[in-house]
C-alpha cells in the first residue's frame, strides 16, 4: 500500500560503530529498496560518528566515518541513532539532536535510567521522537507493547529476566554446578561478561532496565538510582541446590509492582529470586531475556527472546528507525512519554514477597519451636519447613514463608540471628516470587 | 508529560455489546481521567450499536444503545470500535466509518482475512487509521510488534497457537486422556467452544489469523481462503500417546514461513503438528495462545498470553483506541499497511516439514525393509524408526522423517497404502515442526 515517495530521503546519522553499531550500519546499507518501501522514502546513512575514524571496518565506506559527532548530529539529519552507551558524550549529542530538530533512536539504558525525563521533555519540546526499544531486553518487543498495546489497561506487575549475563551465570551454576566465579570466568571467555562485570553481576544494568519498564508500565517517573538492587555475587551452588530441592530455580529478576501497601507507590527492585520451576520465567535459559507482564484486563503475558547481541539489538534499532522515518514522511511524530502520574517508589521495607531462609540449627528438642515462635511474633506466616542433615551431620532448616512485608521479615531474621544457642553459621535468605 | 487538552473530546462509537463489547464499554466508562491523561483529551462514548437496544445491560446507561449503527457511525465520531464479528453488516459499517472520516479499531479476524486489503485501502484513502491488535491472539501484543518493532528486520517464520478452543481440547486429550468428542463437549460446557464448533475445530479461525500474521510478517497480501487448512477432528488419543512416547506433543499450529523453494512465495498453513516437548510452544496450556517469530536479525522471539475472553480482548481494543485517539489529538494517523511485496502462496505440495507416520504392519521378516525402500525411492530420509506391539499383539511401526517436500511425502504414503501384503489398517500421519 505504501508507495515510495521519492521526493526527499530520510537522512540518518549513526553514533557508535561497535558490536551493535556495525550491525545497524550493515542493515542500513544492505537492503535499501526494502527499507525505502517500508518507510515510504529512501533512507540515507549520512555519517557514522566514532572515536577512531581510521580503524578498519570492512564493508562500510570509510568516507562515512567522522570524529566530529556533534557536527554530524547538527548537519540537518532527520534521525540520530545512538549506540555509544554511557552518559557522556551521548547525552549532549542527543540534546543537540533534539535542538536541531532530529528524532532519536537510542539503545542507551544507563542514560535513560539516569536522565530519561530530561531527554523525553527535550524531545517533546522539539516536537520530535525518541524511541528506545533496544534499551531493554535486546530484540524483544517490550517497550512498544508497554507504551502502546497495553496503554488502555492497568498493569499491576512487570517482572523480567533482563540481564543475559547474570542469567547465563546462574544457568551455568544450576546446570553444570559451577561456582559463581567459575561461571563468571566462562561468561567472560565467551564474551557474555565484561572484564569488569560489576554493572551486570551487581544488578546495575538490570536496575536501569527496571526503571525504564516501571516508568512505562505505571505512567510515572522512576530513575535507575531509585531501584532497590541486590546482585548475584553471594549466590552459592548450595543456594541453588537447596532451591532445586524445593522445585525452584534462582534467577536475577527485575520486579516492578503496583501492589504495595499504598495506592500511589510502586515497588521496583532487582534481586536474586526463587521461582517455581513451573513459572514461565523459570525455563528461560542462557543469555535469553524474558519479560512477564500482569495487567487487570489482559491477564498474564510473556515476551521472550535474545536479550543482547549485535544483530538482535540492531533489529530493535531498525524497527524504531522505520517507525520514526514513517512519522517524518507523514510530517508527524509519535506520542510523547506518558508520565502523568506522580507515583513514589515504596521503600524496600514495604515490599511484599515470600522468603526462603536456610540456617544451620542445633539438633536438639525445642529448637524448631523457638524459631517458629519468632516468625509468629513478627506476624510472618510459615508456608513450609524442611529439615535435613548435611554431609557433616549438621541439621539444616529451610523455611518458606507466606507473603510478608520486607520489614517484618528483616526483624524476624535479626532476632533469629541473636539466638546463638539455637543456630550456628550464617543465615541464608532469598526472596520468592511467582508461587 | 502529556497534558490533557480539554478542547475537544475524542468521540467513540462502539458496535456490538456482547462478551467483548460489554468489557470495552466498561473500560471506556470506568476511568475517564486515566484515559484522558493517556490520550491527551477526554474520550467520550457516544453510542453503542446493538441489535436489541432494549435488552438489560447493567452498568451502562440505556440511552447509549441504538439499533441504527449506520447513523451512529456517520454521526461525526472520531473512532469506531467494531466487535460485532462476521462479514456483514461489519464490513459496510467500517466502510461507512472511513467515508465519514472515522478511524477504526476492529477485533474481526474473519473480516480482515476476507476483505483486509479493501479495508486497508479505504482507510488509507480516507487518511484514517485501522488497528486490529485484538483480531489475533487476544490480548497478546503481536500485531504491533510485527507491524512496527520488527519492521526493520526480515521475518522468516511466524508459528503460533492462535486458537484457544483447539488448544484446550488437545490439552484435555493429552492430560486427561479424553477422546476428541469428550474434550469438545467439556470445552462447550465451559464456554470455550461454540455450539457449532466448526470454525475452531476445522481450523478456519486459525487460518484467518494465519493470513493476517503472514501478511504483516511478509509485507504482502494473503487472504484467509488461500491458507492450507487441516483441523483436529481426526486426532485420536492414540496419536497423542504415540507422540508422547517420542517426547512430542500435538498442537494445532498456524505456520507461515518464507523458507520455501521459491524466493517470492510463502507457505501459510494450519494443521495439527507434533512439537518436541522442549519447544517453547509445547508448554502452552489450556486456552492460552502463543506466537513464535523467527527473523534474520532478532532471532527467535515468543509472545504468550490469554488468547481470548472478554477482558483480554477488550484490553487489546483499548490499546488501539488510545493509539488512534493520540493520533487524532495530534492531527495525524499511523502508517498504512505495508504490503509492497507481491508474494504468492506456495502450494501445500511445496511445503517443507518433517512427518511422523504410524501404521500397523505384518510382523514378518522383510516388511520394514520394503517400507523403508519406498521412502528411499521418493527421497524422503528417515530420521527414526520405532516398532512396538499394541495390546492386541499387532506390530505398529512409527517413522519420523527428515524435512522433505510435502509432495514427496504424499507420494511415499500413497505407495505404502498399496502394499496390502505388508500393512493393515489405517496409516496415520502428522507433520512435525520445531525439531
Explain the overall architecture.
The structure is a homodimer of 435-residue chains. Chain A is built from 14 helices and 18 strands. In chain A, α4 (90-99) packs parallel to α5. With 435 residues, chain A is of the alpha/beta class. The mean pLDDT of chain A is 93. In chain A, strands 7, 8, 9, 10, 11, 12, 13, 14, 15, 16, 17 and 18 form a 12-stranded mixed β-sheet that branches. The relative contact order of chain A is 0.13. Chain A has 3 domains: 10-139 and 310-329, NAD(P)-binding Rossmann-like Domain (Rossmann fold); 154-305, Dihydrodipicolinate Reductase, domain 2, CATH 3.30.360; 351-432, Alpha-Beta Plaits, CATH 3.30.70.260. Chain A has helices at 19-30, 32-39, 69-73, 90-99, 109-126, 143-149, 164-176, 180-189, 198-201, 204-218, 237-245, 310-329, 367-377, 406-417, and strands at 10-15, 43-49, 65-66, 79-82, 103-106, 130-131, 155-161, 228-229, 248-257, 265-276, 288-295, 299-306, 344-345, 352-361, 382-389, 395-401, 404-405, 423-432. The interface between A and B is large, with 67 and 67 residues.
Key terms:
3 domains, Alpha-Beta Plaits, Dihydrodipicolinate Reductase, domain 2, alpha/beta, six-stranded parallel beta sheet, 14 helices, 435 residues, Rossmann fold
User: Major beta sheet of chain A, specifics?
Assistant: 12 strands, mixed
Helix content of chain A: 25-40%
So, the CATH homologous superfamily of the largest domain in chain A?
Dihydrodipicolinate Reductase, domain 2
Q: Tell me what the CATH architecture of the largest domain in chain A is.
A: 2-Layer Sandwich
Q: Give the CATH topology of the largest domain in chain A.
A: Dihydrodipicolinate Reductase, domain 2
Output the structural class of chain A.
alpha/beta
Show unreliable segments of chain A.
Answer: none
C-alpha geometry of chain A: elongated
Strand content of chain A: 25-35%
* Gyration radius from CA atoms of chain A, angstroms: 24 Å
Assigned CATH class of the largest domain in chain A: Alpha Beta
pLDDT averaged residue by residue of chain A: 93
Number of strands of chain A: 18
Oligomeric grouping of the chains: homodimer
Total individual domains of chain A: 3
State the separation between the terminal residues of chain A, measured CA to CA: 48 Å
Greatest interface (CB-CB under 8 A), with counts per chain:
A-B, 67 and 67 residues
Amino acid at each position: 500500500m505504501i508507495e515510495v515517495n521519492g521526493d526527499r530521503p530520510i537522512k540518518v546519522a549513526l553514533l557508535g560503530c561497535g558490536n551493535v553499531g556495525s550491525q545497524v550500519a550493515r542493515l542500513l546499507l544492505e537492503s535499501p529498496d526494502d527499507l525505502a518501501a517500508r518507510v515510504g522514502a529512501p533512507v540515507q546513512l549520512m555519517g557514522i560518528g566514532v572515536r577512531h575514524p581510521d580503524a578498519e571496518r570492512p564493508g562500510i565506506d570509510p568516507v562515512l566515518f567522522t570524529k566530529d559527532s556533534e557536527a554530524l548530529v547538527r548537519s540537518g539529519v532527520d534521525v540520530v541513532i545512538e549506540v555509544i552507551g554511557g552518559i557522556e558524550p551521548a547525552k549532549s549529542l542527543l540534546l543537540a539532536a533534539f535542538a536541531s530538530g532530529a528524532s532519536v533512536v537510542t539503545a542507551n539504558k544507563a542514560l535513560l535510567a539516569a536522565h530519561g525525563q530530561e531527554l523525553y521533555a527535550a524531545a517533546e519540546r522539539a516536537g520530535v521522537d525518541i524511541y528506545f526499544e533496544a534499551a531493554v531486553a535486546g530484540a524483544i518487543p517490550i517497550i512498544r507493547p508497554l507504551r502502546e498495546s497495553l496503554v488502555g489497561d492497568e498493569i499491576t506487575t512487570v517482572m523480567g529476566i533482563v540481564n543475559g549475563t547474570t542469567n547465563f551465570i546462574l544457568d551455568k551454576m544450576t546446570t553444570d554446578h559451577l561456582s559463581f566465579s567459575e561461571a563468571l570466568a566462562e561468561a567472560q571467555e565467551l564474551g557474555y561478561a565484561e572484564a569488569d562485570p560489576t554493572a551486570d553481576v551487581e544488578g546495575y544494568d538490570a536496575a536501569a532496565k527496571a526503571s525504564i519498564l516501571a516508568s512505562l508500565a505505571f505512567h510515572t517517573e522512576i530513575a535507575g538510582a531509585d531501584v532497590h538492587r541486590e546482585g548475584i555475587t553471594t549466590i552459592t551452588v548450595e543456594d541453588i541446590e537447596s532451591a532445586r530441592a524445593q522445585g525452584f530455580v534462582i534467577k536475577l529478576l527485575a520486579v516492578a509492582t503496583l501492589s504495595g501497601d499504598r495506592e500511589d507507590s510502586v515497588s521496583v527492585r532487582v534481586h536474586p529470586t526463587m521461582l517455581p520451576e513451573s513459572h514461565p520465567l523459570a525455563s528461560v535459559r542462557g543469555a535469553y531475556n524474558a519479560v512477564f507482564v500482569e495487567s487487570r484486563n489482559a491477564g498474564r503475558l510473556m515476551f521472550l527472546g535474545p536479550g543482547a547481541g549485535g544483530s538482535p539489538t540492531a533489529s530493535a534499532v531498525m524497527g524504531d528507525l522505520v517507525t520514526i522515518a514513517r512519522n517524518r514522511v507523514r510530517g508527524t511524530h509519535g506520542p510523547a512519554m506518558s508520565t502523568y502520574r506522580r507515583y513514589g517508589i515504596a521503600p524496600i521495607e514495604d515490599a511484599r514477597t515470600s522468603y526462603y531462609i536456610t540456617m544451620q540449627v542445633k539438633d536438639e528438642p525445642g529448637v524448631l519451636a523457638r524459631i517458629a515462635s519468632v516468625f509468629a511474633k513478627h506476624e510472618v506466616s510459615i508456608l513450609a519447613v524442611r529439615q535435613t542433615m548435611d554431609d557433616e551431620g549438621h541439621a539444616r532448616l529451610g523455611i518458606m514463608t507466606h507473603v510478608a512485608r520486607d520489614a517484618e521479615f528483616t526483624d524476624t531474621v535479626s532476632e533469629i540471628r541473636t539466638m546463638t544457642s539455637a543456630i550456628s553459621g550464617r543465615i541464608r535468605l532469598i526472596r520468592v516470587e511467582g508461587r
